[in-house]
Amino acid sequence: MSGETRPKSAYEIALQQYDAVAEKLDIDSGTRELLRHPKTALEVAFPVRMDDGTVKVVTGYRVIHNTARGPGKGGIRYHPAVTFDEVKALAMWMTWKCAVVGIPFGGAKGGVVCNPKEMSQGEIERLTRRFTIEISGAIGPHRDIPAPDVYTNAQIMAWIMDTYSTNRGEFTPGVATGKPIPLGGSLGRNEATARGCVFTIRQAAKHLGIPMDRLRVAVQGYGNAGSIAASLLHADGCKIIAVSDSKGGAYCGKGLDPAKVLAHKKLTGSVVEAEGTEFISNADLLELECDVLVPAALENQITADNAPRMRAKVVAEAANGPTTPEADDILFDKGVMVIPDILANAGGVTVSYFEWVQNLMVYYWTEEEVNGKLEHIMNHSFAAVLDMAEKKKVHMRNAAYMLAISRVAEAAKLRGIYP
Length: 419
What we know:
With 419 residues, the chain is α/β, with parallel strands linked by helices. It has helices at 10-22, 29-34, 84-100, 121-135, 154-168, 189-208, 224-235, 258-268, 282-286, 325-334, 341-344, 347-361, 367-392, 396-415, and strands spanning 40-49, 55-64, 72-78, 106-112, 144-148, 216-220, 239-245, 248-251, 278-280, 292-295, 314-316, 337-339. Among the domains are: 38-171, Leucine Dehydrogenase, chain A, domain 1 (Rossmann fold), CATH 3.40.50.10860; 191-344, Rossmann fold.
């Protein structure tokens, strides 16, 4: 309808976040404009033979946002709602995520418009291998390194690595991360996103002077990141009072056992009606009185509408983009500490970096070494972002963006323009 405002696309939000920070930094106009645009944006259409013998034409994308600090890095998602705009936004966010934790990558992202839930394993394999061929000129261990994302996994990374290696005629494990352990995957990678998020929560609790065993935690989204974060926080002595998934939530004021809830979810397909819990909606979970809220589901969950009613002291964004820019300002004015996604969930790409390094060295680390190195990087990065927030008197997201954009801009300026 003519009077209604169209919701902003992910890319428009990404640009809004960038512009709001970049104009406050001492960056020349040329560099500032350069960082608004992807370096390479590839759209491909390719045929896939289905099990019934028919051929389906599929659209895929691979976007490299920036390579000033190193090769592109970012996941590939398989989803029917993938759009070019979404992939461009995610690639930009990956640039800032890699920079804020100081790892030598630029940002990239990929996506294929398909519904893997309606495809056989054979169809997914044929799609993956053909997509790899289509983007093989853009990817490579020193050019752009894919990883798993929504509805992609270690097996799909194995097919990408095998297809790329076979065509090159040499084993090239560094072309993708998130691979199975026997093919050069890193120990600790599966838990890395959640573990990195928990490290930042520990630092936030320390800064606020709240012992971990006094934290009451609510987790929205009980997939890989959410369920592992709940389990790790539970092991730290935190009381997990509510969890949810797409079908609803489970609440227990006395604290629930994350392992039992996960077992219930595996059995029934949802956390709803887990033993000893009462039903709670996703919307109600976000507004619970708690110390820490972990959004680990979809984007745009915390908005200008519900932010005024939220009662958490800390919001640790395990998901990408769960908070709108308008909600950020509201939460900041309320005194809520938001640990932004580009910091809170950077554990995954950090351990992907470790995997890539191990592949290039052909030297593999223990899980204890991986977790120790991850903790060091997450703690150091949290301290740097908090310091920037306090110095500039801004919320943590703007501080993280200031730090990240400054680092990328400096690298771009040092490299100069050639020819």
